[in-house]
From TrEMBL:
Residues 62-385 form the F-box associated beta-propeller type domain. Residues 13-46 form the F-box domain. The lineage of its organism: Eukaryota, Viridiplantae, Streptophyta, Embryophyta, Tracheophyta. It comes from the Eukaryota. This is F-box domain-containing protein. InterPro entries: F-box-assoc_dom_typ1, F-box-assoc_interact_dom, F-box-like_dom_sf, F-box_dom, Gal_Oxase/kelch_b-propeller, SCF_F-box_component. It comes from Brassica campestris (Field mustard).
Length: 386
């Protein structure tokens, strides 16, 4: 009787009041506990998420790896009122039994790569569900991954790796894909001269993943020094399960310069370019058109970083806010101690004529240099992955 009366009173509360006063204050990873309270709260949280998508996008949600553990972040990007980095940080207990080395985001789901390379795990933070994935043969340290979905919203995992061809005595670029619906791996027939770096993080947009790629260095005896290669974007189409054609960038980068991809909402791609030979210059570009085989660009922001050490050390990720005309950039720097055995995360809010800096989110082992996975377009997913 008491439970029925309680649910009746809760049902009388306006949805906006429940959302603004309760649900909006909770970390995304805590909404699962709210859902499990009763059928009414499950329905309320689901309805509020679906009806407040635009409002949720104004509050940036993200995930980061520190000391091989995952933390959720909640923060706002506001150039006038906000100079810090995050409002809250919460350790993810559901994945506490394993160590995570890499994290990828797609459509509200996270793909996590275990440090020991034994398995992958797909995690839905909102539903609190996980899917553990065994390798077809073995996972390796230098594997490259992407996470996306096809036209039927069926999620898939792309794995690229190098396999030594004994007959031709050379490394072959191999591609395989895992289908979450069929619970199976398959090898794709892909021939490519792509040089996707093992630590490259693609950007997932409208189900497809875009990579920054430089042309592969031709084989030789080492007598010729290669200092300049063609660079471009390439898209992996998860519906057709193949790579698209080369897409032009709005600049040309050298081998040592930093190029990082991110998403703007659900329809645009952004790229950060740090010029090596123009110390202290950050360029942010945003697509005005983006498809698997077509792209056009517009410059979003140009930032002089000279007053702030002049350069970034290791860009993990970034987000931009078109309304605020601002960006938030995450990188990793070496400790000042002589041993240089650890790095620390750093975050900056940058805009036209200003830079807000926050250091020391937490130190992490030097060899990992974990990327920060943040998204200005993150929304809770209702996709069942169990």
């Amino acid at each position: 009787m008491f439970e029925d009366q309680s649910e009746s009173k809760e049902a009388d509360l306006p949805l906006d009041l429940v959302g603004d006063k309760i649900l909006s204050k909770l970390p995304i990873t805590s909404l699962g506990a709210v859902r499990s309270t009763c059928k009414l709260w499950n329905a309320l949280s689901r309805e509020w998420i679906l009806s407040n998508a635009a409002k949720l996008k104004r509050q940036v949600l993200g995930f980061m790896t520190m000391d091989y553990k995952i933390y959720s972040l909640r923060f706002h990007l506001h150039k006038d009122k906000y100079r810090g980095v995050y409002q809250s940080r919460k350790h993810i207990d559901i994945l506490n039994q394993v160590e995570i080395s890499k994290v990828f985001h797609c459509h509200g789901l996270l793909l996590c790569v275990l440090k020991d390379k034994s398995r992958l795990v797909v995690w839905n933070p909102y539903l609190g569900q996980t899917r553990w994935i065994e390798p077809r043969t073995n996972f390796h340290k230098c594997d490259r991954y992407a996470f996306g979905y096809d036209k039927n919203r069926n999620h898939k995992i792309l794995r690229c790796f190098d396999d030594y061809d004994i007959i031709n005595k050379k490394l072959s670029f191999m591609v395989e894909i895992y289908d979450l619906r069929s619970h199976s791996w398959k090898v794709l027939d892909v021939t490519s001269d792509l040089a996707i770096e093992y630590d490259a993080n693609g950007a997932s947009l409208k189900g497809n993943t875009y990579f920054f790629v430089q042309e592969e260095i031709p084989p030789g005896d080492g007598s010729i020094v290669v200092s300049d290669l063609e660079d471009f974007l390439i898209c992996f189409d998860f519906t057709n399960e193949r790579f698209g054609q080369r897409l032009p960038l709005p600049f040309h980068s050298s081998l040592q310069e930093a190029v990082t991809l991110s998403c703007v909402g659900e329809d645009q791609l952004a790229v950060l370019y740090e010029r090596l030979y123009t110390i202290g210059t950050l360029e942010f570009w945003v697509t005005t058109k983006i498809e698997p085989n077509a792209v056009s660009w517009s410059k979003f922001l140009n930032v002089d970083m000279t007053p702030h050490d002049g350069y970034l050390s290791h860009v993990g990720s970034f987000i931009i806010d078109e309304e605020e005309k601002a960006a938030m950039v995450f990188d990793g720097r070496r400790d000042d101690q002589p041993s240089k055995t650890r790095r620390y995360h750093r975050a900056m809010t940058v805009g036209d004529g200003y830079c807000g800096l926050y250091e020391g989110l937490r130190k992490c082992p030097t060899e990992t240099r974990p990327p920060l996975v943040c998204s200005s377009s993150y929304l809770p997913s209702l996709v069942q992955i169990n």
